[in-house]
């Protein structure tokens, strides 16, 4: 696997850097490198963190020297492969757009000149690539949003954005996985829980997977929300077919 740089980023981590651009092909290389390291089951690796064009591998320096870790990870990445079972998954996430659940959809309409129905259609059309999970546990940074939807962030961020909120921030779109402050334009909300701290990993979504938003009415939002609260809603039902 070709990369631009592999080096010790600190006494307990190795950084693998690919070409510096946001691109699905680069994201695929990052994902495959992470899978290779995970499949190698190196006993001293403690964390694997992907980003747009980099992979950070954290290790226990009490078990391995930095130079030894660097060499082992470099060899692992060179010869790694991805099995069919590890192909990206497609998650279909229900979203209720507009109204009280999407208070900023009017801002997006005003900025872009698009009608609300067109904003919803354009936003729910793509199969978004999850470039990375960040900001909070389970928050997916999604690529592939229609450029016609690009809208600046709020001038004054909110002190609290409810989990499940779907937002637009400039060229990006994502889902707030936890109740947190935030400055993205909120255009809808999903009743699905993206984080379960009782599971490992706690995040439903992973870098390299895909998300497809499915518009739902407020009545269906309430029904799914009740099922999620009662534990009768199966998150596994969201995972669609594997991507080709």
Radius of gyration: 19 Å
Could you spell the SSE succession in H and E letters? EEHEEHEHHEEEEEEEEHE
Given the C-alpha coordinates, what overall shape results?
elongated
Q: Could you name the CATH class of the largest domain? A: Mainly Beta
CATH architecture of the largest domain: Beta Barrel
Q: Tell me the span between the first and last alpha carbons.
A: 21 Å
Number of domains: 2
Would you tell me the overall average pLDDT? 91
| Number of beta strands | 14
Which runs of at least 5 residues are low in confidence (pLDDT < 50)?
none
Estimate percent helicity: 25-40%
Look at the helices and sheets and give the structural class.
Answer: alpha+beta
Give a short account of the largest sheet.
7 strands, mixed, barrel
The name CATH uses for the topology of the largest domain is Cyclophilin
Please state roughly what percent of the residues sit in beta strands, choosing from under 5%, 5-15%, 15-25%, 25-35%, 35-45% or over 45%: 25-35%
Strand order of the largest sheet: 5-12-9-10-7-6-13
């Amino acid at each position: 696997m070709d990369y631009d740089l592999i080096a010790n980023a600190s006494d307990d981590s190795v950084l693998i850097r690919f070409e510096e651009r946001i691109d699905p092909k680069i994201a695929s290389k990052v994902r495959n490198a992470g899978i290779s390291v995970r499949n190698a089951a190196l006993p001293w690796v403690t964390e694997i963190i992907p980003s747009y064009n980099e992979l950070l591998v954290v290790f226990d320096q009490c078990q391995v020297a930095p130079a030894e870790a660097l060499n082992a990870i470099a060899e692992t990445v060179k010869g790694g492969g991805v099995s069919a079972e590890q192909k990206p998954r497609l998650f279909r996430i229900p979203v209720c757009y507009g109204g009280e659940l999407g208070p900023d959809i009017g801002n997006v309409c005003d900025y872009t000149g698009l009608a609300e129905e067109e904003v919803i259609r354009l936003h729910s059309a793509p199969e978004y690539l999850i470039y990375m999970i960040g900001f909070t546990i389970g928050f997916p940074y999604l690529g592939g949003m229609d450029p016609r939807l690009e809208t600046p962030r709020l001038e004054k961020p909110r002190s609290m954005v409810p989990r499940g909120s779907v937002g637009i921030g400039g060229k990006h779109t994502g889902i707030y996985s936890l109740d947190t402050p935030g400055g993205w334009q909120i255009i809808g909300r999903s009743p699905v829980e993206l984080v379960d701290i009782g599971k490992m990993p706690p995040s439903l979504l992973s870098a390299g997977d895909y998300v497809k938003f499915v518009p739902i009415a407020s009545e269906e939002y309430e029904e799914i929300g009740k099922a999620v609260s009662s534990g009768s809603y199966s998150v596994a039902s969201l995972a669609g077919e594997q991507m080709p």
